[in-house]
Design a protein that fits this description.
about 280 residues, five-stranded mixed beta sheet, 2 domains
């Protein structure tokens, strides 16, 4: 009976905003097929730039402005600059729908979006992204977490253009050995490095919040991968996690980030769901 009910449910319509390193891979995965989901539309700032890519899909989606997506989709996947998060997410939450948010750092400055979701029965989903162990952190948070510390080490070019780098006049091109360039809270890191450390924001939302979660950021010219280490002390467990992420074609973004979103989407209608 359950299988029959699942087969009778209409496909969930997915809209994707942004066709960079992450968005393009998600669109391709949806086009290849994810059970129970269908790619309904995409939104990009320069449609002509992506016309040939979209035309090559099995079922090319509609290309629509952001404000039109809520009328054609049940779920929006945000793969855009953090400045656009509210305009992308708010209409879906206000309609009681779901928003998958990759720019988790933007949620720290738009906590009203969480309240909007509560009021209208919507949901914000933050994928695991470039981290591991968020299940363990969310489980520990059911009890008491005493501290969460994250150390991020990145290739120099992966930090280029970050607001914190610009504001503090850090000449990262001259860095010849590992250099700690930031030490502060996840909230401060999200503002200073909006395209680099969404992982810290996600970690803070899973655990003890952005003002108690601390992070170090290191620039290391010898690295070719983004490295994250997390240390957690709680009343239920003490654990450490480390991951080395292979960058995508965008050096600021790990390849596993897009795969994490695809895994998240697959869980939506999966017969077997593993993990919290």
């Amino acid at each position: 009976m359950a299988d029959l009910e699942n087969s009778m449910r209409p496909d969930l319509r997915i809209a994707v905003v942004g066709l960079g390193a992450i968005g393009a891979r998600i669109v391709e995965a949806l086009d290849h097929g994810i059970d129970g989901l269908v790619l309904a539309a995409v939104s990009v700032q320069t449609p002509e730039k992506h016309r040939s890519r979209l035309a090559g899909l099995t079922k090319p989606p509609d290309v629509l402005p952001i404000e039109a997506l809520v009328n054609v989709a049940d779920i929006v996947v945000e793969c855009a600059p953090s400045t656009l998060v509210k305009s992308i997410v708010a209409p879906f939450l206000g309609a009681g729908k779901t928003a998958v948010v990759l720019s988790a750092g933007a949620l720290l400055d738009h906590e009203d979006l969480i309240e909007l979701a509560k009021q209208h029965g919507g949901q914000i989903v933050v994928p695991t992204g470039a981290l591991i162990g968020l299940d363990a952190v969310t489980a520990a948070a059911v009890g008491t977490i005493h501290s969460v510390r994250m150390i991020t080490r990145k290739p120099v070019r992966g930090l280029a253009g970050a607001p914190y780098i610009v504001e503090h006049n850090i000449d990262i091109e001259r860095i010849a050995e590992p250099l700690k360039i930031f030490d502060g809270t996840a909230r401060e890191a999200a503002r200073g490095f909006p395209a680099n450390v969404n992982v810290a924001a996600a970690l803070s939302l899973a655990g003890i919040g952005p003002d108690r979660t601390t992070i170090e950021i290191w620039a290391d010219p010898a690295l070719t991968r983004n490295i994250h280490r997390i240390d957690v002390e709680s009343d239920s467990a003490r654990f450490s996690m480390s991951i080395e992420n292979i960058p995508s074609e965008n050096p600021k973004t790990g390849l596993i980030t897009a795969l994490s979103v695809i895994a998240c989407l697959r869980k939506l209608r999966a017969s077997l769901r593993v993990g919290t």
